[in-house]
Amino acid sequence: MNNKIIRLSILGFTFAVLLNLFTGCSFRERMVIWAAKPVVEGAIQSLLSETDIELAKTGLESELKLLEGMIVTRPNDRELLELAAQGFTGYTMMFVEDTDQNRARALYERGQKFGMRALSLSISEFMDERLKLDEFNLLIEELEDNDIPAAYWTAAAWASRINLEKSSPKAMMESPRAVNLMQWVLNTDPHFYYSAPLWYFGTYYASLPPMLGGSSAKSNEYFQRALKADGDKFLWGRLLYAKTYAVQVLDQGLFKEQLKQIVSGAENEPEDLRLLNRIASLKAQELLKQSEDLF
């Protein structure tokens, strides 16, 4: 009888130790993050398919703050970092850049930093700000296919921030790095996220003056490739085509044609483009009103 009591006491003590170990703060945090990740990812995907723009805007703001909190707990979680890079870049592009450029710069920088942190999990030197351009380019060559999302959203946020800081010599010196990183994405997967790298370079060459490498011919080449692949779905790309290339070559007919197609909507619209396409439509309507002033 005494032996039985002793065995039960040992079992009880062991269970108590294990219970304390696995209900510790660190373990609870890991379990909460593990359980919450798919919920947050699902929530963001749901918001991207939302057609009520104000509801989506409010929801995205909440999800981005939740993401940041999760990253504090799990700073080396690649999926969370990539999602934050995408989230801050997309949110700023859709809701902030046209109305508050100072805030947009700060938010793009936040997205860029999350993306760089994700890339540094593959190559730690990516976080070294002392790298020379040629050293940075060598790191880019070491990237692999699974780095495409982090590389794209980092480059997109980076380039967008630089575009808002054109008067800053420091920002202009960073530009080749963002462009080269995006070039790697283009070379690796030109149709990533509805041909986003192609839309980017179409915009890039249309936005630069010829003396700095701008070229309407190169711009149109990239835009035509993107239009052929995803122009019927990704209406934001058509918006870029109208705002940059059509304006640069002073083609008012093309400008109006593209904007009217955007307003008409997309055929076979993917769910994850509903929100972006609705916002593109609103912006297209505003640009149509400005047509006579732009040409």
General description of the model:
This protein is globular. Helix content is 77%, strand content 0%. Mean pLDDT is 89; it is low at 1-25. It folds into 2 domains: 30-189, Alpha Horseshoe (Serine Threonine Protein Phosphatase 5, Tetratricopeptide repeat), CATH 1.25.40.920; 190-295, Serine Threonine Protein Phosphatase 5, Tetratricopeptide repeat. The N and C termini lie far apart (98 Å). With 295 residues, the chain is an all-alpha fold. The chain is built from 14 helices and no strands. The longest helix is centred in the first third of the chain and has 24 residues, at 25-48.
Condensed summary:
77% of the residues lie in helices and 0% in strands.
What profile does the largest beta sheet have? none
Architecture per CATH nomenclature, i.e. the level-2 architecture of the largest domain: Alpha Horseshoe
The CATH homologous superfamily of the largest domain: TRAP transporter T-component
Helical amount = over 70%
What structural class do the secondary elements suggest?
mainly alpha
CATH class of the largest domain: Mainly Alpha
Total of DSSP H or I helical runs spanning 4+ residues: 14
Overall shape: it is globular
Number of strands: 0
What distance lies between the first and last C-alpha atoms, to the nearest angstrom?
98 Å
H/E element order: HHHHHHHHHHHHHH
Computed CA radius of gyration, to the nearest angstrom: 24 Å
